[in-house]
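Good morning,

Attaching, inline, the backbone tokens for the sequence recovery test we're adding to the shared suite. The designed sequence is right after.
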């Protein structure tokens, strides 16, 4: 398709276009291979949005994470045409949610139909309000059906058809073989740490599941793909970590290992299962359930290639730019606050969104692609055109400053990341408002050890010897919970408010864990109460209930909110 000619009017005057693209291409020529003008940025670690905005039900982080989920799903093929961006529009009056999708090329019918089926499941679950496991199974089926070609590409399995633009390199070998090779190379202190944490055995088990997909019959593929995704998820969420990348980093792995393509692919594979958890929770929890009863999908039509004065090649309109322009034309009282993306934002998109000032992002890989543009828009009024011209001038000013730099940043980062549910807390940004995680470690005795993860500390990983054992995740709407504990039980996670409670039951031969709401427990003298926010509990705390050698009762709360009564009964020999 021939580039569309552009008249010399509107945002891009001939001089502005010539100046901007000349400077952008000069900067591109100064950059060596694997260099970028700035270092990659993870904006989730330095979120500028804080506090509760009463206009919205979703928090900023929930909105951003949800947008990232749908953009991830929309990227159904290993093609630049499928690179996608998403916003989540919230309407409290109806109430409703709109998922607005923009891709480099207008999404094809099968993508729209697949995403619509996923929204249908969420809508039906929100309306019925029951049978969570049934709906989660249906949702997982819909996700796998939409994403199977992309998953085969991530696995580099025998079912994958290599696109012409993907060169035959070491990265095109099956993922399970590359993981096995990495495991053989894991020696010394790091290799011992992996084995002690049970991670080595768990990764070996994952390779078995990935190999089964590669060699499995076509009729078995849906089931085998689900098993492979679930095993990947188990690796990503192993112990108390939220990603394999973070786990390896904590074990002392170098950046070359923790951020290798193999590690990041495992986290991305796990994301297909994680997003099912998140979406089912969204459609079930009381605050957001009404929104999901009226959830819908809207598609932006992409722009054709555009020839710009000063640019030697035709330019493209990225999904992030399409969405910004949509809201310029269609303002909202509750404007989306975040743009999710299937790939991290490029340098020019990052700079554009920063100068525009109304949206946030998860991440920017900061690589410079000069074939980038903002289209001419006939509906813009004078104020909008002048504002966008000032925006482009401001971008150009930063590019000119970067041209004066003598050195630039090495950048080997992959262009897409598996964004985890919670913003990582690091010491320099942690505060009393951080979300703590409480680890409850239950042993084969009437002794219970609690380790509280205060806002400025990191929870120590719990060594796990058997990667085959199971774990469960519960939310506030699942209360009361009664869970039988046996040799096959490893972890039980309860997400209440802004606190994660992780119950480690691996060493328990036989018992039962009961958790229930306990509002009347505030102020009781006969039950030990633990505040998850108490900074003095950043240590090991042992609890023993002398009244009964086979039962222990205590309460946990978040500054007197969301109080829970926890009862554990040992039913086997102790």
């Amino acid at each position: 398709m021939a580039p569309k000619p552009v008249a010399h009017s509107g945002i891009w005057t001939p001089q502005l276009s010539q100046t901007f693209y000349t400077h952008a291409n000069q900067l591109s020529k100064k950059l060596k291979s694997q260099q970028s003008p700035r270092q990659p940025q993870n904006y989730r670690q330095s979120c500028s949005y804080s506090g509760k905005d009463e206009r919205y039900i979703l928090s900023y982080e929930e909105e951003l994470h949800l947008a990232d989920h749908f953009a991830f799903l929309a990227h159904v093929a290993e093609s630049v045409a499928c690179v996608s961006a998403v916003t989540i529009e919230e309407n409290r009056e109806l109430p409703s949610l709109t998922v607005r999708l923009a891709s480099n090329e207008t999404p094809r019918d099968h993508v729209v139909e697949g995403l619509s089926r996923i929204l249908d499941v969420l809508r039906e679950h929100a309306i019925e309000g029951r049978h969570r496991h049934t709906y989660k199974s249906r949702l997982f089926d819909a996700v796998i059906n939409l994403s199977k070609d992309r998953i085969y590409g991530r696995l580099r399995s025998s079912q994958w058809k290599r696109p012409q633009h993907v060169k035959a390199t070491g990265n095109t070998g099956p993922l399970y073989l590359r993981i096995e090779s990495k495991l053989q190379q894991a020696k010394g202190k790091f290799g011992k740490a992996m084995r002690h944490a049970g991670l080595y055995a768990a990764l070996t088990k994952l390779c078995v599941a990935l190999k089964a997909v590669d060699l499995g019959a076509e009729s078995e593929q849906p089931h085998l793909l689900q098993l492979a995704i679930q095993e990947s998820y188990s690796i990503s969420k192993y112990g108390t970590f939220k990603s394999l990348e973070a786990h390896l980093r904590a074990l002392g792995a170098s950046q070359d290992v923790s951020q290798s393509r193999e590690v990041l692919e495992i986290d991305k594979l796990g994301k297909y299962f994680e997003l099912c958890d998140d979406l089912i929770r969204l459609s079930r929890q009381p605050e957001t359930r009404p929104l999901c009863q009226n959830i819908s999908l809207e598609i932006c039509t992409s722009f054709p290639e555009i020839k710009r004065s000063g640019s030697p090649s035709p330019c493209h309109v990225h999904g992030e730019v399409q969405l910004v322009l949509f809201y310029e034309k269609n303002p909202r009282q509750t404007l989306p606050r975040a743009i999710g993306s299937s790939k991290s934002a490029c340098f020019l998109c990052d700079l554009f969104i920063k100068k525009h000032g109304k949206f946030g992002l998860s991440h920017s890989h900061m690589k410079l692609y000069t074939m980038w543009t903002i289209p001419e828009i006939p509906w813009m009024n004078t104020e909008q055109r002048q504002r966008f011209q000032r925006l482009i001038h401001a971008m150009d000013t930063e590019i000119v400053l970067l041209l004066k730099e003598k050195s630039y940043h090495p950048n080997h980062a992959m262009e897409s990341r598996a964004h985890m549910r919670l913003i990582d807390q690091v010491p320099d940004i942690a505060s009393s408002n951080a979300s703590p995680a409480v680890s409850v470690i239950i042993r084969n005795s009437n002794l219970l050890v609690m380790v509280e993860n205060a806002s400025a500390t990191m929870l120590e990983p719990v060594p796990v010897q058997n990667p085959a054992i199971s774990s469960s995740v519960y939310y506030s709407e699942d209360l009361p919970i009664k869970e039988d504990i046996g040799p096959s039980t490893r972890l039980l996670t309860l997400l209440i408010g802004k606190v994660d409670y992780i119950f480690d039951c691996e060493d328990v031969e036989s018992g039962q864990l009961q958790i229930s709401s306990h509002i009347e427990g505030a102020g009781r003298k006969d039950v030990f109460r633990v505040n998850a926010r108490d900074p003095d509990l950043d240590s090991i705390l042992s609890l023993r209930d002398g009244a009964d050698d086979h039962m222990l009762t205590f309460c946990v709360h978040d500054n007197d909110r969301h109080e829970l009564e926890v009862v554990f009964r040992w039913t086997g020999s102790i």
